[in-house]
Structures are given as C-alpha cells and as structure tokens.
Specification:
Layout: H1 3-9, H2 14-63, H3 68-80, E1 96-99, E2 104-111, E3 119-120, E4 131-132, E5 134-144, E6 147-148, E7 156-157, E8 195-198, E9 217-218, E10 232-233, H4 245-253, E11 260-261, E12 266-268, H5 276-287, E13 292-295, E14 300-303, E15 316-322, E16 336-337, E17 339-351, E18 367-373, E19 389-394
Parallel strand pairs: 7-15, 8-9
Antiparallel strand pairs: 1-2, 2-5, 3-4, 5-19, 6-11, 8-18, 10-12, 12-16, 13-14, 15-17, 17-18
Helix pairs in contact: 2-3, 4-5
Length: about 400
C-alpha cells in the first residue's frame, strides 16, 4: 500500500475534532439555558412584584374607603421596592386599574423595550436577541368574610343603643338592630381604632396612681358580672361551656380554633383558675411581635419601617360580636351566645392602664387593650352579611 493510501486511512485525531464540535454545541446550549433560566427568574420575580403591588393597592383602597390616588401610590411604591432582576419595574398610572363586581385592584408591572427597561440577555446576543420583554399582571380584591380564621376565645358584645346609659344591656329598654338590617346599631368601619379594655371591672381601687381607671370602654361589663365573662369556646350543648385556663390559653397563643362562622353557636367559658395567666398569654402575643404598632393616622397596625397597613400578623385576630339580646347574666358555663357578626381586633398592649405603656406594672392590675380593625386577613366565604372583610388575590 502506498504511503499516500495509508495517509488517507489514518483516523488519528478525528475523535478530538468531534469532541471539540460537541463541546461548542454544548456550550451554546448551556449559554442559552443560562439566558432562559434568567428569563424564567425574571418572570417569577415579575409575578411576585405584581402580586405584592396589587395586594398593597387593595389594602390601601380598603383602608381609605376607595381613595384611588392613595391606592395607586401604594401599589407603585411597593412595586418600586421589589426589583425584577436587580432593577425596579415600570408601573405607570394606567397600569393600576380599579375594577368592580367584585371590587379589586389590578396591577401590571413591566420590564419592556417600550418602557426603556427590557431585560438584557447575555449569550443569546449571538443569535440577535439583545433583550427580552417581561411583564406580569395580578389582581387583589376585597372580600366579605363570614368567620374568623384565627379567632381569640374572647367575645365582644356588639354595640347597642344604651337608652339608660348604664353600659349594661337592659331587656325591654335598650335597643339592638343586628347587621345587615336597616338601622344596624353594631360596630362598623367608623369604629376602626376604638380602644376596648378587656378587664375585671371590679378593679376600681388600690394600686399606684398611674393605674387609675379611665373612660376606656369595658367590653365585658355588659354581661352584668364584674369578671371576665367574655370568654367563650366552641362546644356542643351536651359538653357544656367548660374552658378553664388550660383550654383557653392555647387558643390565645395560636389558631386552635379555625373556620368559625356567623351561624355557629358559642358557649360561655368559665375561665376558671388563675385568670392572670390569661393576661400573661396576651402579653406573650405582644412581646413576640414587638415591631408592630397601632398607627393612629391610618387606624391600622403597621410594622416598623413599612407604611403598609397589616391585615395579617400574630396580634391581628378575629373575634365574634355577640347579640346582646342573647346574653344571660351569670348564666354559667352552659350559656349560649349568638354570634351576630365578626370583627378584627389588634392586641395593642397589656398594661395597668390605657395611658401607660405595654408592660407597665403592677402585674396584678394588668388589663388587655385591643383596637377594632375594619379588616383582617381571613378566608372568604362569599357572604354579604359580614362586617369582617379581607384582601385576597383574585383573577
């Protein structure tokens, strides 16, 4: 065989050429995968930003009774602090829409060439793709809620017309019209921020001067008994109310009770035992969320460094509003109370006086102070007859 023939059949080095070609292809695919992964991340972050902006806008819309300017500003502000691939999106005024049936705020966030902030590519540039448009849409709306997702074992008597002005429900004299009947006398949005004192009303004397009682509304007094008769638990009639400290305590610290509705009965709990321990449970709630406080301007709780009203927090809870006509003073643990509505409360502080800061001593005169909230983050059940409302993501 001639040398030229042998040279034509020599395959040494072919494998290296094929490996080189394959490596080029693999590097190209890897490069495109990096760009695709980056774009998928951008899409995820865009949706997250749209969700946050829509939720913030809906909360502001609810808290300001439909102020579209404030709602739009809140949505744009939240979008600006939630970047998409390290750059804030563009949310123009027309990108924040207000829709009805049901009431909701829809927000579109953009990183697009027409907005001058498209997402740049890296390796896809060799194929002529220098940038890619990314956008996302989200809507959040206001929903009626028929019950409490995380209720306290504490009932507030709904507001009535106290004809004889004695702060105690008097059958045949006082007047109560339940929600949503015309002329409803109970709590409404106008009562947001009302401070309510949950206390033993027999504590009228003793203690240091700073603990002197004030005119803060005492929610339990209408039961006609100078004790903590606001306590309740869910129970069947045959079981009785029961509910000593051991049962009530975990219901304060966590969501032991879920899914309560307007039509559910509640039964008076004895609260037997050392009731000071129950006050300690409320203090535990506050101490474990010290960065949240009540904002007098917007009448809602806010977290330090964030101007957004909170609907969900450890201290943001729901409570049943009880029809005062169903109260039986000194009725014992088997007394049934009728829920007429639900409302949200913010556990503001535990102190010896509404004028003293949280934790003000002496411990033996600690009372619990809550603020009425007009909305709280609970589930939607579609009923129109609840004062309790929430903001939820919608289509």
């Amino acid at each position: 065989m001639s040398p030229d023939r042998r040279l034509g059949l020599d395959e040494h080095g072919v494998t290296m050429v094929m490996v080189a070609l394959i490596m080029v292809a693999l590097l190209g695919v890897t490069a495109l995968a990096i760009d695709i992964g980056m774009l998928l991340t951008a899409r995820t972050e865009a949706q997250r930003t749209a969700d946050a902006a829509a939720h913030a806008g809906a909360v502001e819309w609810l808290m300001t009774d439909g102020d579209e300017g404030a709602s739009r500003s809140s949505a744009q502000q939240v979008a600006s602090i939630n970047p998409i691939i390290a750059e804030p999106p563009d949310v123009a005024d027309e990108d924040v829409e207000f829709l009805t049936a049901p009431d909701r705020v829809r927000v579109t966030v953009w990183r697009a060439a027409e907005r001058g902030n498209a997402v740049p590519t890296f390796f896809a540039r060799v194929l002529g793709f220098n940038e890619v448009d990314v956008n996302a849409v989200a809507a959040a709306g206001i929903a009626n809620s028929c019950g409490g997702g995380c209720p306290l074992p504490l009932a507030l008597i709904d507001e009535w017309i106290d004809v004889d002005n004695d702060d105690i429900w008097d059958e045949g004299t006082d007047q109560y019209i339940p929600y949503p009947e015309p002329g409803y006398t109970g709590y409404s949005d106008e009562d947001a921020g009302l401070q309510i004192e949950i206390k033993d009303v027999s504590q009228d004397g003793g203690g240091p001067p700073q603990c002197a009682d004030t005119d803060t509304y005492e929610a339990c007094k209408a039961f006609g008994d100078p004790s903590w008769d606001c306590w309740w638990r869910e129970a069947l009639p045959s079981e009785g109310g029961g509910g000593g400290v051991d049962e009530l305590s975990p219901r304060i610290r966590s969501c032991v009770i879920e899914g309560m509705e307007i039509d559910d009965p509640i039964w008076s709990a004895s609260g037997a035992g050392n009731k000071q321990e129950l006050v300690d449970d409320f203090k535990w709630l506050v101490d474990n969320e010290p960065d949240v406080a009540w904002d007098e301007g917007d009448q809602c709780p806010k977290r330090d460094g964030d101007d957004t009203c909170l609907l969900s927090c450890l201290r943001c809870r729901s409570v049943p509003l009880v029809d005062p006509r169903s109260i039986v003073p000194d009725g014992g643990a088997n007394t049934r109370a009728t829920i007429s509505n639900w409302t949200g409360v913010f556990v503001e502080k535990v102190s010896c006086s509404p004028t003293q800061p949280h934790g003000a001593e002496p411990r033996g005169r600690w009372n619990v102070y809550v603020r009425l909230m007009k909305a709280i983050g609970t589930g939607n059940c579609g009923r129109p007859d609840s004062m309790l409302r929430s903001v939820q993501m919608m289509e």
